[in-house]
């Protein structure tokens, strides 16, 4: 079931066209990513979805609601974590949650939520004294306190150190497991690849492609490369005959097989049939970065 | 609403410099300057002493101007700058409620400060309570409303939370001057007193003093305050930005 539908969204700012033509659908229960470089129109797109901005063209539906017309109802269905929205410096963690819970008719138990985002031990800490990762986790908790069906998370891990980033990713996966649909805005390829079921690549206000991360990589060729040192000589013909293999190169005693599909398994199985053991086996896969480059001619980051 | 009022009140109380400047400073100035400056406690030809009504009225004005020129704009611009208001706009509660809550808290602080100043004047200087008290309350509410609307205009115009108190001071000190903080209104040259008459703060201080001393406020002063409320209120509605 589609919980979000965006059709031909367009948003013009006084000086530039932020969103030119964006369409996508989000199915209930999935993590949908919006991936693109800075300034691509990602945030404007989700702000239109959340009813914070009025689009100049196109239609948006969230759980059947029009975000502008049904603003009040939408607020109860959609929770949003905004990029760089802070809280008063001296508010304590529990006070913020208690306050935001009071905004909703049927809020979540914020004590439980506090434990879930891993801030149970920080309940009496003021916002000012929280680390970047803790602030983001509080921000996620505030977006969830109204028991939304959809949570929009905008640039959740920007500015976090790698460990904090991984902790937040785990949190996002837990939230999805609890049945909340997630729209994740990011410019991190790794984040999108790890978390998203499907994603839309956005560049210069337009959707370049929408697919699963693997599908996107495959769309642009899905080039993979398997490198190894065979324990016994193997001819090119044996490898080239395998399904999906496109080319074989040799550098000294190292063999590099490139192609698409389930390349690593195909190659290792074929080698096993010839009683050859692949030493120093390495698999190099195309990434979303490569896909973005192929689709737009530009690098993601 | 109740919870937001509670939380914001706690945040207000945690910010001790605001409280010190809006309540403690006027009270300290009332007592210390009232007792030490020669002539403050002596009867003039009308039989009134400066400390009976004029000086405490100016301290009420000082407290209010501190609130509306620095405390209120600083909170609102900081909340806007840091995205506190924007985050609220993602919830079912409108950020307009935050505005209401801030106005209520500042009004409450103004009432407390004024009550302390009235009681302090009676106790320290052995003065009479405000003689025209219904008029005093009316003048207090009208003047406070007009000045708060002015504070909202400052909050709307200030680019960020750090600039707000600076802009507030630029507004506050000239207003204190024309209201008679340094030269009493009765000693002002005519031209300056005319400026004072139309400055909202001047009529506010004068009308507080008149009602405190048991006289009726001058109609001109009430009209200027009401006009200030309408003009600043209109500007605030037009200029205020949530983000």
UniProtKB/TrEMBL annotation, chain A:
Indicate the principal place this protein occupies in or around the cell: membrane
| Pfam families, alphabetized | ABC_tran
**Protein's cellular compartments:** Cell membrane
Show the SUPFAM superfamilies listed in the entry: P-loop containing nucleoside triphosphate hydrolases (SSF52540)
Signal peptide start and end residues = none
Give the CC-aspect GO terms.
plasma membrane
In terms of InterPro entries, this protein maps to: AAA+_ATPase, ABC_transporter-like_ATP-bd, ABC_transporter-like_CS, ABC_transporter_ATP-binding, P-loop_NTPase
Q: Which domain of life is it from?
A: Bacteria
The record's GO molecular-function terms, alphabetically, read:
ATP binding; ATP hydrolysis activity
A GO biological-process term: response to antibiotic
Q: Which UniProt keywords apply?
A: Antibiotic resistance, ATP-binding, Cell membrane, Membrane, Nucleotide-binding, Translocase, Transport
Q: Where is the ABC transporter domain?
A: 4-229
The reply on keyword ATP-binding is yes
PROSITE patterns associated with the record? ABC_TRANSPORTER_1, ABC_TRANSPORTER_2
State the membrane topology.
Peripheral membrane protein
The molecule here is called ABC-2 type transport system ATP-binding protein
Lineage, broadest ranks = Bacteria, Bacillati, Actinomycetota, Actinomycetes, Streptosporangiales
From TrEMBL, chain B:
Topology in the lipid bilayer is annotated as:
Multi-pass membrane protein
User: Which domain of life, per UniProt?
Assistant: Bacteria
Which PROSITE patterns would you find in this protein's record? ABC_TM2
Q: Which residues form the ABC transmembrane type-2 domain?
A: 17-243
Cell division keyword on record:
no
- Gene Ontology molecular function terms on file: ABC-type transporter activity
Parts of the chain that traverse the membrane: 58-79, 99-124, 136-157, 164-183, 220-240
State the similarity comment. Answer: Belongs to the ABC-2 integral membrane protein family.
The name under which this protein is listed is Transport permease protein
């Amino acid at each position: 079931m589609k919980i979000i539908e965006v059709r031909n969204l367009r948003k013009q700012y006084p000086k530039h066209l932020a969103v030119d033509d964006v369409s996508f659908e989000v199915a209930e229960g999935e993590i949908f990513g919006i991936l693109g470089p800075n300034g691509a129109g990602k945030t404007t797109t989700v702000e239109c979805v959340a009813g914070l901005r009025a689009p100049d063209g196109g239609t948006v539906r969230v759980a059947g609601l029009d975000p502008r017309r049904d603003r009040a109802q939408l607020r109860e269905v959609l929770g949003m974590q905004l990029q760089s929205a802070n809280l008063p410096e001296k508010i304590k963690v529990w006070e913020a949650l208690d306050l935001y819970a009071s905004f909703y008719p049927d809020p979540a138990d914020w004590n439980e939520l506090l434990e879930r985002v891993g801030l149970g031990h920080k309940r009496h800490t003021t916002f000012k004294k929280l680390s970047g990762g803790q602030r983001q986790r509080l921000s996620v908790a505030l977006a969830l306190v109204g028991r939304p069906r959809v949570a929009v998370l905008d640039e959740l891990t920007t500015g976090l150190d790698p460990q904090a980033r991984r902790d937040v990713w785990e949190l996002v996966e837990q939230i999805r497991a609890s049945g909340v649909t997630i729209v994740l805005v990011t410019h991190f390829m790794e984040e999108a690849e790890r978390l998203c079921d499907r994603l839309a690549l956005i560049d210069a206000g337009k959707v370049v492609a929408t697919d699963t991360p693997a599908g996107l990589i495959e769309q642009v060729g899905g080039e993979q490369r398997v490198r190894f040192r065979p324990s016994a000589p193997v001819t090119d013909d044996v490898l080239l005959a395998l399904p999906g293999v496109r080319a074989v190169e040799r550098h000294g005693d190292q063999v590099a097989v490139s192609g698409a599909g389930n390349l690593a398994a195909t190659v290792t199985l074929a080698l096993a049939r010839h009683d050859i053991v692949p030493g120093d086996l390495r698999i190099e896969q195309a990434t979303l970065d490569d896909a973005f480059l192929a689709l737009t001619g530009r690098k993601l980051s | 609403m109740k919870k937001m009022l509670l939380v914001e009140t706690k945040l207000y109380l945690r910010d001790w410099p605001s409280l010190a400047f809006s309540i403690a400073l006027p009270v300290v100035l009332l007592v210390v300057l009232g007792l030490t400056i020669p002539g403050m406690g002596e009867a003039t030809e009308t039989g009134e002493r400066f400390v009976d009504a004029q000086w405490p009225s100016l301290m009420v004005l000082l407290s209010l101007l501190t609130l509306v020129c620095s405390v209120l704009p600083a909170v609102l611009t900081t909340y806007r700058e840091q995205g506190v208001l924007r985050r609220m706009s993602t919830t079912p509660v409108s950020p307009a409620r935050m505005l209401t809550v801030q106005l209520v808290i500042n009004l409450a602080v103004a009432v407390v400060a004024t009550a302390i100043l009235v009681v302090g004047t009676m106790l320290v200087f052995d003065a009479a309570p405000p003689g025209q008290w219904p008029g005093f309350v009316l003048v207090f509410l009208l003047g406070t409303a007009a000045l708060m609307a002015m504070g909202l205009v400052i909050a709307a115009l200030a680019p960020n939370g750090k600039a707000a108190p600076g802009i507030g001071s630029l507004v506050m000190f000239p207003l204190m001057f024309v209201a008679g903080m340094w030269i009493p209104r009765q000693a002002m040259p005519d031209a300056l007193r005319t400026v004072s008459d139309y400055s909202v703060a001047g009529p506010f201080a004068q009308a507080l003093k008149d009602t405190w001393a048991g006289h009726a406020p001058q109609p001109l002063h009430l009209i200027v305050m009401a006009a200030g409320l309408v003009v600043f209120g209109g500007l605030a509605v037009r200029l205020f930005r949530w983000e």
